[in-house]
Design brief:
Layout lengths: L1 H12 L6 H12 L8 H8 L3 H9 L7 H21 L7 H16 L2 E5 L6 H11 L4 E4 L7 H12 L10 H9 L6 E4 L6 H14 L3 E5 L2 H7 L2 H6 L2 E4 L6 H11 L7 H12 L4 H18 L6 H10 L9
Parallel strand pairs: 1-4, 1-5, 2-3, 3-4
Helix pairs in contact: 3-4, 6-7, 8-9, 8-10, 13-14, 13-15, 14-15, 15-16
Length: 324
């Protein structure tokens, strides 16, 4: 009897703990009007995994893959789908995203803590997304004005790590140190310039205890935050500043995505787009201007060119410079 009970308990322990909310989202997506787009094979391609894993996950039993990796990629898929639908623009690889990827990889290989700096609108978020897609075990925390304190950072990291083995008597930070020390899992902090000083100090202390690689991704305001404490600054020596060097690729992608039927105006519109990139706002400014331009064209009482629409949009946005 003892042997049978032990066998039963072992079998139960091996049953994967699915994220049921995530699994239901996938089932609802596959049952909707566009279900043909989300077959096992189609989803497998989107996730970069074996189609059998999709089938096993949907049925809820017999899952033989790496559940953590699968669910992480599924979360990324839903996040990217929401962004794509909201913006109307697919995330593509650019020089900037490659530079972000390379900088994060360097931190991961060296197990260092370092900064990756771009101007606002330069592609930080999309670069982070592409890296996480390729590295689903990386931990990502996006700083907002309402979660920039040390308690929010600790709570988000605890949620990402999971509470398996947590006894409620140990401090959460100590538990995470024990769980992550030597794991080489990269922690990416998006919009790190919004962190409070106490939160940044918590992150630096956590790195010193675990030596896991940590990437602080933000704007140039991050430098000022670090310089406010020379002791903390001395621990973060790796600094990567990324600037748009070949904006034409992304500008062209934005134009084609947001303004269909450009026909012979593509080059002219992209020339205007490169002017916008050279000013404050970078690609985010291009996106807003192109999107507004298409709206202006659709509402115009008489036909206007795309160039005219882009110039008209410029006058309706907060700009302190003129298009040439």
């Amino acid at each position: 009897m003892k042997t049978e009970n032990a066998t039963t308990e072992t079998a139960v322990a091996k049953v994967p703990r699915f994220n049921e909310t995530l699994r239901q989202r996938l089932l609802e997506l596959r049952a909707g009007p566009t279900k043909a787009l989300y077959s096992n094979n189609q989803m497998a391609k989107k996730l970069g995994l074996n189609s059998s894993y999709v089938s096993q996950y949907c049925t809820g039993n017999g899952f033989t893959g790496d559940l953590v990796t699968f669910e992480k990629r599924l979360e990324d898929f839903f996040r990217n789908e929401a962004r794509r639908k909201a913006s109307g623009v697919e995330t593509i690889v650019t020089d900037e995203t490659r530079s972000i990827h390379s900088a994060l990889e360097t931190l991961r290989k060296l197990n260092e803590i370092g900064c990756i700096v771009l101007s606002s609108g330069g592609g930080k978020t999309r670069g982070e997304e592409l890296y996480i897609k390729d590295n689903p075990l990386a931990i990502h925390f996006q700083v907002r004005s309402w979660n920039n304190d040390k308690h929010s950072v600790e709570g988000a990291l605890f949620k990402a790590v999971g509470d398996a083995g947590y006894d409620n008597r140990t401090k959460r930070a100590e538990f995470m140190v024990q769980k992550l020390a030597g794991s080489d899992r990269l922690l990416i902090i998006g919009d790190a310039h919004k962190l409070t000083k106490a939160a940044l100090q918590w992150i630096v202390d956590f790195w010193e205890e675990t030596l896991i690689p940590i990437g602080l991704v933000g704007t140039h305001a991050l430098h000022e935050l670090l310089m406010s404490d020379t002791q903390r600054f001395s621990r973060i020596q790796l600094w990567n500043e990324i600037k748009p060097e070949n904006p034409r690729v992304l500008v062209t992608h934005l134009a084609a995505s947001l303004m269909p039927n450009l026909n012979g105006e593509l080059e002219t519109v992209c020339d205007l787009g490169e002017q916008i990139v050279s000013h404050e706002g970078y690609y985010r400014a291009v996106y807003k201007q192109f999107k507004l331009a298409e709206e202006i064209r659709s509402l115009a009482r008489k036909p206007i060119t795309h160039e005219q629409a882009v110039r008209a949009a410029h006058t309706k946005l907060l700009r302190d410079w003129q298009l040439s």
